[in-house]
Write a structure and sequence with these properties.
Largest interface: A-B, 40 and 38 residues
Number of domains of chain B: 1
Number of domains of chain A: 1
Largest sheet of chain A: none
Structural class of chain A: mainly alpha
Order of helices and strands of chain A: HHHHH
Radius of gyration of chain B: 69 Å
Order of helices and strands of chain B: HHH
Radius of gyration of chain A: 13 Å
Number of helices of chain B: 3
Distance between the termini of chain A: 10 Å
Strand content of chain B: under 5%
Largest sheet of chain B: none
Oligomer: heterodimer
Distance between the termini of chain B: 202 Å
């Protein structure tokens, strides 16, 4: 487990996404299903995930590359 | 595995989830204070330090609670010991008073007995003195009576003698000298 996740607690959403990815589900389908129960996702353009992700990072002044590398590390450490 | 690697769109899905929901939802840093972002090393260090502080504080609180408990136990034990000692002292004092009272009572009983004996002896003494006085009075009376009897006897004898001698008196003395007597 990622030590940061260990320290700050598990992220249920991330773990659900990781499971869906491992099962070979579509990221769009997963997010759309997730949006049914999470109003935070409603209104987002889930047909263009890359553009939406970049827009969100830009709006919130987040370095997308840095976050991307951390997500990859998280995903890789939870694969096994 | 289809899109199980980040070669597809999954990485963007993760990005969206991470930006919207944050990492772990436990307070991430980032450039925008209104959103959850990825953790910086400062955040991690702060969290670790805070966790250490909380653990130390909990240990201190537990130690303090234990100390308070032990202190209370010691006070209770000391209070109980003092109470027991006080009870023992009271019991000893009361027993001492009882012994003293008994001694005093015995002393008074002895004094009363001695007074009663003294009264009895005084009665006996008084009775003896009275008896002795009566005896002496009786002896004196007896002596006086005996003296009176002796006197009476002497008088009777004298009267007899005088009567007898009166015959002589009735007959005149033969001489004047004798008559002068």
């Amino acid at each position: 487990m990622n030590p940061i996740m260990n320290l700050l607690g598990n992220n249920n959403m991330m773990m659900q996404a990781l499971g869906a990815m491992m099962r070979g589900e579509s990221p769009r389908t997963f997010l759309k299903n997730l949006a049914n129960n999470n109003p935070q996702l409603k209104g987002l353009n889930l047909d263009n995930l890359e553009g939406t992700a970049k827009d969100l990072c830009n709006q919130r002044n987040i370095d997308i590359n840095s976050l991307k590398s951390q997500i990859e590390e998280f995903a890789n450490s939870n694969k096994s | 595995m289809g899109e199980s690697s980040f070669g597809g769109e999954w990485i963007f899905a993760f990005l969206i989830i991470a930006v919207i929901f944050g990492w772990g939802g436990a307070g991430f840093g980032g450039g925008n204070a209104n959103v959850a972002a990825y953790a910086t090393m400062a955040d991690v260090n702060s969290a670790i330090n805070n966790q250490s502080t909380q653990q130390a504080l909990a240990a201190i609180q537990l130690s303090s609670a234990n100390n308070n408990y032990e202190t209370a136990q010691l006070i209770n034990a000391q209070s109980l010991a003092m109470s027991n000692q006080n009870n023992t002292n009271l019991v000893n004092a009361i027993q001492g008073f009882n012994t003293t009272n008994q001694t005093i009572a015995n002393g008074f009983a002895s004094v009363n007995q001695n007074i009663a004996d003294l009264g009895y002896k005084m009665d006996q003494c008084c009775c003896s003195i009275k008896t002795m006085m009566l005896e002496r009075e009786l002896q004196a009376t007896t002596n006086a009576l005996q003296n009176q009897q002796n006197i009476a006897v002497n008088q009777a004898q004298s009267e007899f003698l005088l009567n007898t001698m009166g015959k002589w008196v009735a007959n005149p003395a033969s001489t004047a000298a004798y008559a002068a007597k």
